[in-house]
Amino acid sequence: MNLLFLLFHFINHQIEFTGKSLSELGVFMKLFLCLCLILKVAYAGQAGPGDKFLVKSVDGSDLSLMKSKITKVLPAHRKVASPSFLPSVEERDKVFKESKLFSSIASWDDFDKDSLYLKLSQKGPNAIDGVLKKYPALNRTNLETAQKLILASEAL
Amino acid sequence: MKSLALIFGLSFASLTSHAQACNQSVDPKKIVLMVSFHDGAEEEKGARLAACERGETLVVLPRVTAEDVGNYQEELATFLASARTNGTTVSSLIISGHDGGGEYYGDYGSTSVAEISQTVSENRSVFQDTSSLLLMGCWSAPPDQVSLWRTILPNMRVLGGFVGAAPLSIRESAGTFVRDILKGERRLDENASEAGVRAMLKTVEHMNYVTAGVYVQPNVCSEQNPFYFISPANSADEMPEGMVKGLNTLADGSEREMACIKAFGRDGVAGTFDWNQITQYFYGQAGEETDPELRSLYSFLRNNKDCFSEGYSEGPILPDQALFLRFFQDTKKNFGKYFNAELGAMYSQIDSLVAATGDQELISQYSSHKKLMGDSLNTLSRRETLEEISKLTAVYDEVFARRYSQLSWGERDELVKIDLPVHNMMYAIDRHLHGLRCMHGSWHDYSEDEVLQAPSC
To answer: B77, B118 in Cβ contact below 8 A?
Structure first.
């Protein structure tokens, strides 16, 4: 495409340089010029996501590559997809209720309940110890029941 | 000649519509409010007849005379001010204009669902008894639009509109649709069963020749599923998903959709949740992560989590992000722990770049920006963390540009290769620390000896 544009400019330049008018050009040359013009108009301003823009730094050097790279690598955080790790409120509360943990933590709000659920969803022997360290009032057996239910539900 | 005949015909229709006198007494404080943005002679005629039978007064905005057209906004403001003062209520609302389904416009002005929603919320007393709505525009009454209007006019029993192209306002079928829906709504018993709803719909003349979509809820206080009628005239590609031609019921999904619209709004219609409050926490502009307000905001998001999963609302902060926001200190520590080696490598790269520029001013500026790792990171608040991310990005951009301009073409390619890990790390910082995304849920809780799960994206 760039080659066509270069040719177009070259012919333009030749016309200006030689002082020839358009009517003096051959039919093929006229057709070629038309084609170049159509392509130039059609493609003007159609910059896609992969396009590099000519950006000059203060000293005049070309920073196109750098700019395109930064914008490609650092998109707005909102555009990053992220699967949710939280179960539904009903599912979460059902686990706590069935494991009889819920009655003892009835006053807990969603933050605390979600935090507890996520801690229990950790596999490994230290998960329950970690919870008890943070919430010593909770019953170990009930916590184990809750953890089994959570892991069995494969909600995460 | 044809044009002359058309003009003559229209003028005649208009005259006859205005000439329709109501032979029974009407309540001047019960209004059928018609907002028409184009010549709606037939629609107005239908509305006038129905209003008369309902014993109500028809008000048409903007006023159109042979000389000029009134300003819709000004006339509406005047009407509402007067209605608020003297206790007038709008029992039925008719909106007529091109391109329904969000916007209504024509030669005489325009409005939108969002604008009307705002008007209704600012004039609750005027619209508290609005029980019927007619949307005389194309695509004005598919189920999702019905859900939107139900949140705007909670006492709405009937909504009549179109699921496809609406008839022109000068067509007879437009007039009969307005007339018979309004009459039917008034006659509809609040205990009406499906048979009663069918009977009401059968009274609407020409119903089967237009692409009608009609919502009917005989009793707004009942828990019975509302009805939704689709005209047989609708083509297959105009049919809403899961619906059949004829009478349907709006299933539970519609109620859920409504709950989401009420909570978070849609199409410019405001919900009850104030996004500004949580975004202030998100951007570190206000509050601490222990604030009770943040807890209640989180609860709201959490209990409406389903609204995020099906595109009802793409709010700026998802419940997962709010959880990390509440536990930001631990999240931050886990980030530092997980990316410790990469953070170190990134800072080394930047150090090398800064030193290579030989710019003393830049070197002194940058030396204060190494705060996103180790103990330094642990002491930062959300606001300070975001400031550091912003500074780091700005400094890096500047340093890179400076160094890039100092190098030859061949050397630049090498620089770009070296630069990749730095960018990757900055991307991770942006995703996790700034965006609060992609981390495993366990990252919200810091534990020295726990092995962290890898980020999910």
So the answer is: no
